[in-house]
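Narrative of activities, Objective 1.

The group set out to show that a structural description can be obtained from nothing but a protein's sequence at a throughput compatible with the screening campaign. Below is one input-output pair from the validation batch, recorded exactly as produced.
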Amino acid sequence: MGKYIIKRLLISVVILFFVAFIIYALMRALPTSYVENMARQKSMQPGSKSFEEWMEQLTAAYNMDKGLILGFFGWLGNMLKGNFGDSWRWTVPVVEKFHDTVWLSFVMGAISFVLELLIAIPLGIIAATKQYSKADYTISVIALAGISLPTFFFASLLKLLFSVKLGWFDLYGLVGRNYNQLDAFGQILDKAHHLVLPIITLVVVSMGSLMRYTRTNMLEVLNADYIRTARAKGLPEKKVIYRHAFRNTLIPLVTIIGGSLPGLFSGALITETLYSIPGIGFASYESMIAGDIPFSMFYMVFCAILTLLGNLLSDILYAVVDPRVRIA
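Output recorded for this entry:
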């Protein structure tokens, strides 16, 4: 297992190198108006340098005044040193803005992820064990609705019902108007209150696929020969389902769950933007539309690293939960 992990990490480094090159090449292909607009804004500030000087500084900061290959290796060298530059949109170092936003996204993503597991997996098992019953049809309809509903549409429905009609929640933002007048515990409750609708949105639009996947795999396992043998031996039905069938259903589920864990740090771009939650997803969206090249490049490389780690984690967990898997 140790040799396998080292081998996969080395392969991941090679893949990450080419992904970073593609990201840099795409950023180099963006219209120069982004850099020009930033240089123009900075040159208009009192006592600032001229437009030409700012253009020269901004293009040189990310090696855009050199060729594609030389520019990429210059940018890569700075990145390996931990120098990601300053964000043009947020006017702070990229790493500082990342640190200020990523933990909010992680908390929101972790809560929704746990709720998704607690809801989707039991419902998938119920649908499989009661196939073609009313419960199965009801759960299937809920799952298909969750898969089919676009995030922006479902979020708009929640805001219309609970914010506009009932007035239970604010339409946007992470804190209320009286946030500064509250004590520490009250501020925590205020933030939690504003995260209710975004978390519900994340859970509903993501649990449908996991619910259907659990049902499909559970049905496949329940039709296996060893399950019939266990029932023929007179084992209780609950023991057959949860001790024998569900353990084997976990094998494909764990690979999906393992691949989802790194996504907790990448944020929910659409949901955070719709609710104006200042997480990493919202910050990346604002940076992209503002032409913030430093932050956008950092965020895309960060997402690439998370994807590679997710694939590696899935493979390792697959070998852990299935003793039949042996990695050479």
